[in-house]
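A quick aside before the break. I want you to see a complete sequence-to-structure record at least once, exactly as it would be stored in a machine-readable document. Don't worry about memorizing anything.
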Amino acid sequence: MSDVGTERDKINLMESVIDIVGVSKIYGKSVGIENVTLSVPKGSVYGFLGPNGAGKSTTINLLLDLIRPTSGIINIFGLDVRKNGQAIRRRVGYLSSDLALDGHLTGAQQLQYFCQIHGNVDQKIVDQLVQRLGCQIDRKIKDLSRGNRQKIGLVAALMHQPELLILDEPTSGLDPLIQAEFNKLIRDHKNSGGTTFMSSHVLSEVQEICDQVAFVREGKLISEQTIEDLTKNTPRHLVLKGAKAELIAKLKKQPGISKLHQSSDKVTALFSGQMPKLLKILALHPPSDMTLAEADLETVFMSLYGDSNV
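That is the input. The structure line, written in tokens, reads:
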């Protein structure tokens, strides 16, 4: 119990919606998650990333009290999820990665069913969500594509204007235009004071809308940083065209240059060193063209997981 107390002290003191403190979930001889501690600030969009089997869905199921932790404490809205599960879920919008809908109902009938469960849902909000996501609600669920079923699930998660969204792979099956609209919906939810906790494989999406991300691997939390800090400390992609032999030789010796690859028409590398030194070398041995792209979350992901199957 003292270990959990120590972990609790590490949680950020700003107002949080989700607090996970020293939580483990053991399935027989296998580990779902192990000693995970994290805090999700109110009004933030929090990304939860990792390869398949890393513990993302286990964590979400624990948050929803669908399963119970082997050890540790989980609070949402300051309430213990084991003691206040029903009250918490009234304030949460949830979308599962393996969404199950009634195939014999039309989209409209399915949404009406969800409205009755929630109670006091404003039909105007439902209609707006249906329009924004381009839902096909006049066809039976069984006749809809995966992407169109996913849209129904997103409307159901958002229709009651929840304080907290818990989304497991929310854009799976969506086309790029609808993914962009989803991003806008999450921003709208944040601007209204809402909080989002989402797992995702779409790294570009996470980088665009999340304030903070956590990476899990084999059930353990291996990194938790703001998007700003992550990209600031991540190597940039350097591409040079028309680079002479002298320049290539200098770059190979330059601190901060890694994974340098030379082809017939260009040189590519990762750069994490000091910019003035790089610019000085390029000024002395100018290439015909240069691109230094901003760091991206995919580079971070691959540096953490290597060749893991994601």
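Two observations worth writing down. The radius of gyration is 23 Å. The chain has two domains: 2-226, 235-294. We'll return to this after the break.
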